[in-house]
């Protein structure tokens, strides 16, 4: 156990496999701190047999869970929310230890996770049907909504607490049961949250957790098992395509929140200082390891140079280090594969004429730290303009007019998030409507909220999480026609 962890009771609960209602496994895998390389835990490495057993438990528990009143399900979600709030500092410490993000960001993420539980505890009571005017006097036509059933969920490593809550809280509110596999790099905070879920009073089999070092066979079982009625996945577009194909034989419902290539556009009528601050937030939060991270920064030609000067100056002062150290703004990348990708994007850009304004190097030999980096003289021929970097690398692209930049911003298979800064109201409306993205931040670098629908279009995903729309994704619509009335 790392010296930083302040929650041995929660941390120890992760090892108590029977207490979480999950079968034991013979194999194990290791979880490491990316800042120090320190071993944090050895966890049971589960496979198809354990996944199938968890699905069976969820399938058996689902009818009784769905039969509870909305208020009863809501009360348990509220209790879980309160336990998350009560243990927020401990959960944040676990999160920072296994993922590396600065402790303040981890605390914010845990708060965000609790907000989703609170929101869907409330939304559980707002699952409404409807009546339809019948074509004859002897009929009544109704619509009711019922839970889909067992839901298989796979969560990513970059937001290991908030993604757990965002995915499973609407499902639980709707009356579904859960089998969840967290990312193998960051399973510990999920384990602690599930220990608290058991304490909150979820009946046996309603929430089930699978620890596994490899996701392929777990994903195949979740997709192929007929008892699982829906898959919810956050991760890469490549894996999302694979899961969608695996679900197709059973016409299984899917919710997919996949890759992004977010543009961040600064027009010449923008508040320049606000745009710089927004770009810092949108690009470097979580070391750039977010699906909505600003991946391409477009700045209008007349203000390009001024923006670069201000932006680079702020980037130079971003502190990189262990997430537990005071004042750290950027933690490590998740692993050495992430380091290699950012280095390859920089090398490709420089070879094709790009200029490194600041950063561009690894920091130290231990850990996976990388300098926050700014590149200019970027062209569409560079990999960085076409691919998601998922790291603290900001390429700045000069543009001339709105028509040009909207075309370039939309010229991608992805459509998750976009940002732009402008003051002219006509421009704001026109650009917001023209950008082909599921979410658009206008004069802000951060827009995620439990009250808003989170999700993308094109190859960035299917479905929405958060808001009332997130609840609808876990409900089936049933039409009732009553004759002889």
TrEMBL record:
Q: What InterPro entries does this protein map onto?
A: Ald_DH/histidinol_DH, Ald_DH_C, Ald_DH_CS_GLU, Ald_DH_N, Aldehyde_DH_dom, Aldehyde_DH_Superfamily, Succ_semiAld_DH
User: What keywords sit in the KW lines?
Assistant: Oxidoreductase
Q: Which SUPFAM superfamilies match?
A: ALDH-like
Pinpoint the Aldehyde dehydrogenase domain residues. 26-479
**Residue positions of the active site:** 257
Protein family: Belongs to the aldehyde dehydrogenase family.
Q: What is this protein called?
A: NAD-dependent succinate-semialdehyde dehydrogenase
């Amino acid at each position: 156990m790392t010296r930083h962890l302040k929650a041995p009771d929660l941390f120890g609960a992760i090892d108590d496999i029977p207490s979480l209602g999950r079968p034991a496994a013979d194999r194990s895998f290791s979880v490491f701190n990316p800042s120090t390389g320190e071993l944090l835990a050895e966890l049971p490495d589960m496979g198809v047999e354990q996944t199938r057993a968890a699905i069976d438990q969820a399938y058996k528990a689902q009818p009784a869970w769905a039969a509870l009143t909305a208020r009863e399900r809501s009360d348990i979600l509220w209790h879980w929310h309160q336990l998350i709030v009560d243990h927020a500092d401990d959960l944040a410490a676990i999160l920072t230890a296994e993922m590396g993000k600065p402790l303040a960001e981890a605390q914010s993420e845990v708060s965000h996770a609790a907000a989703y539980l609170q929101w869907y505890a409330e939304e559980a009571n707002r699952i409404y049907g409807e009546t339809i005017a019948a074509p004859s006097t002897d009929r009544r036509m109704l619509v009711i909504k019922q839970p889909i059933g067992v839901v298989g969920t796979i969560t990513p490593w970059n937001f290991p607490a908030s993604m757990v809550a965002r995915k499973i809280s609407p499902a639980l509110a709707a009356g579904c049961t859960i089998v969840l596999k967290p990312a193998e790099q960051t399973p510990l905070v999920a384990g602690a949250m599930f220990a608290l879920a058991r304490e909150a009073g979820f009946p046996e089999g309603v929430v089930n957790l699978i620890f596994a070092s490899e996701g392929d066979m777990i994903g195949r079982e979740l997709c192929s098992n007929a008892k699982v009625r829906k898959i919810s996945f956050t991760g890469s577009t490549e894996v999302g395509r694979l899961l969608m194909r695996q679900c197709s034989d059973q016409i299984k419902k899917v919710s997919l929140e996949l890759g992004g290539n977010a543009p961040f556009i600064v027009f010449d009528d923008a508040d320049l200082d606000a745009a710089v601050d927004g770009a810092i937030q949108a690009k470097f939060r979580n070391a750039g390891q977010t699906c909505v991270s600003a991946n391409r920064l477009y700045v209008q030609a007349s203000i390009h140079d001024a923006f670069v000067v201000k932006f680079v100056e702020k980037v130079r002062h971003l502190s990189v280090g262990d997430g537990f150290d005071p004042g750290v703004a950027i933690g490590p990348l998740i692993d050495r594969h992430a380091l290699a990708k950012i280095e390859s994007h920089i090398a490709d850009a420089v070879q094709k004429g790009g200029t490194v304004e600041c950063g561009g190097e690894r920091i130290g030999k231990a850990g996976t730290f990388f300098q926050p980096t700014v590149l200019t003289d970027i062209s569409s021929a560079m990999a960085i303009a076409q691919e998601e970097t998922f790291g603290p690398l900001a390429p700045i692209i000069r543009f001339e007019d709105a028509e040009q930049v909207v075309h370039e911003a939309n010229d991608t298979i992805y459509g998750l998030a976009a940002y732009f800064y402008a003051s002219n109201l006509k421009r704001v409306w026109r650009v917001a409507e023209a950008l082909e993205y599921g979410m658009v931040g206008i004069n802000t670098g951060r827009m995620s909220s439990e009250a808003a629908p989170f999700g993308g279009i094109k190859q960035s995903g299917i479905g929405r999480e958060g808001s009332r729309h997130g609840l609808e994704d876990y409900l089936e619509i049933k039409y009732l026609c009553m004759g002889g009335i």
